[in-house]
Amino acid sequence: MKRKYNFSPGPAVLPEKVLEKVAKELSCYPNLGYSILETSHRSKIFEQILEATKSKILKYLNLKSNYSVLLLQGGASTEFYRIPMNLLNKEKTADFIETDVWPKKAFKEAKFFGNPRLAGSSGDRDYKYIPSDDQLEINAKSEYLYLCSNNTIYGTQFQNYPKSPIPLVGDFTSDIFSREIDMSNFGIIFAGSQKNLAPAGLTVVIIRDDILERCNEEIPSMCSYKNLVKTNSLFNTAPVFPIYFLNYVLDWIEEEGGIIEIEKRNRYKSQLIYEKIDQYEIYTGYAELQDRSIMNITFNLANQKLLEDFLKGAEMSDLTALKGHRDAGGIRASMYNAFPVAGAEKLAKYMDDFAKKN
Ligand code: PMP
Fold first, then answer.
1. Gap from CA of 32 to ligand 1 centroid (Å)
2. Which of 152, 174, 150, 149 is nearest to 162 (CA)?
3. Contact 275, 350 (CB under 8 A)
4. Measured in angstroms, how far is the CA atom of residue 173 from the centroid of ligand 1?
5. Residues in CB range of 293: below 8 A, 6 or more apart
6. Among positive and negative, which fits the CA dihedral 103, 104, 105, 111?
7. Rounded Cα gap, residues 148 and 103, in angstroms
8. Nearest one of 208, 173, 230 to 68, comparing CA atoms
9. What confidence score (pLDDT) does residue 329 get?
10. Whose CA is nearest to atom 4 of ligand 1?
11. pLDDT digit string (tens) for 246-303?
């Protein structure tokens, strides 16, 4: 069966080459005689995969060895509470920039452990923009400034990160490895795997040494970053499958020309759709121009009937999963790293045809 163009926000499209490779060797891993999924997470072969994955992650993010990489379970949502559990207590505060549902959830979880405060929010204009540095009120005494790099639901993205006197903590679930950008001011970077990395079930957490040093120790072992770093993410059974898959996705990035090439493609794909949104009155973009995401493109049509017709016609053209999130409405075209250029071109052409017909 032919693959459709899948605009799912996550779990999302994976590189076809990697899917094929994994399918081929799933029942019998080369030179092993059985599946990698039937192997101990403490085996030599898995240890090699784990180490290779960790070092490629740091390399692609241009980060040095003063960062530790953790490969964990529990989804990005677990980091919403694991981070404040490690870094806060009732006397300590952390600053948050509220730009989407996800940082809002993280803020709520932080209240269980400390006294989070809002340094900025784009809630006044329905999360259509990213607050600029001069709109932020950062408390220099806070432990960290939390932000969500790409806002999956509303389709906005930080173009640059705030100049902050305190370390940044960033949720990169929906745009990790999508572009070359300086991330060295981050004390913690984390991302759920189900968009740009691998199948669901893995969270990549990257933590800088000085932040690790500050982490609380009197907390449950599975929550303690110090313990998880000390045990090299193997305190309990690691999510073997998504880690193994991620290792190949990282090779795929290299084969495709590295992050530079991936970014070029992401900009081209998103630009194709933004051009159509701007060209035709029938479409209205959700995000404000300066903060548009290159991962999730959000827009609406003039009325419910047009929206339904658009979605129905798209399905018939094998353009699937374009319905927007209920909070933003309309259409959301999620085009992560593995989303093919041909799919973006096909959607752009469909938008042309639909606009001319209606
Ligand atoms: N952060 C962002 C930016 C997301 O888009 C999502 C979910 N899509 C999450 C966090 C939550 O991820 P998880 O379901 O892995 O907990």
1. 35
2. 149
3. no
4. 6
5. 150, 151, 155, 156, 157, 175, 270, 287
6. positive
7. 6
8. 208
9. 94
10. 173
11. 999 999 999 999 999 999 999 999 999 999 999 999 999 999 999 999 999 999 999 9
* φ/ψ (deg, to 5) at 207: -130, 135
Q: Let me know how long the chain is.
A: 358
Per-residue pLDDT, averaged over 134-143, amounts to 98
8 Å CB contact between 94 and 168: no
The set of catalytic residues is: 102, 171, 195
Best CA proximity match to 283, nearest among 298, 266, 267: 298
Closest CA to ligand 1's atom 5: 152
* Mean of pLDDT values over 45-74: 97
* Start-end of H helices in 61-179: 75-87, 101-110
pLDDT of residue 157: 98
- Average pLDDT of span 9-19: 98
CA distance 183 to 185: 6
Give the distance (Å) from ligand 1 centre to CA of residue 351.
28
Provide mean pLDDT across the span 322-329. 95
How far is the C-alpha of 90 from the C-alpha of 70, rounded, in Å? 26
Q: How many CA atoms lie within 13 A of 36 on its CB side?
A: 25
What pairs with residue 223 in β-bridges?
none
What does the DSSP assignment read for 276-344?
HHHH-TTEEESS-GGGB-SSEEEEEESSHHHHHHHHHHHHHTTEE--BPPTTT-SEEEE--TTS-HHHH
- Residue-level pLDDT at 13: 98
Tokens of 282: 């029938």
pLDDT band, residue 351 (cuts 50/70/90): very high
In angstroms, how far apart are the furthest CA atoms of the chain?
A: 64
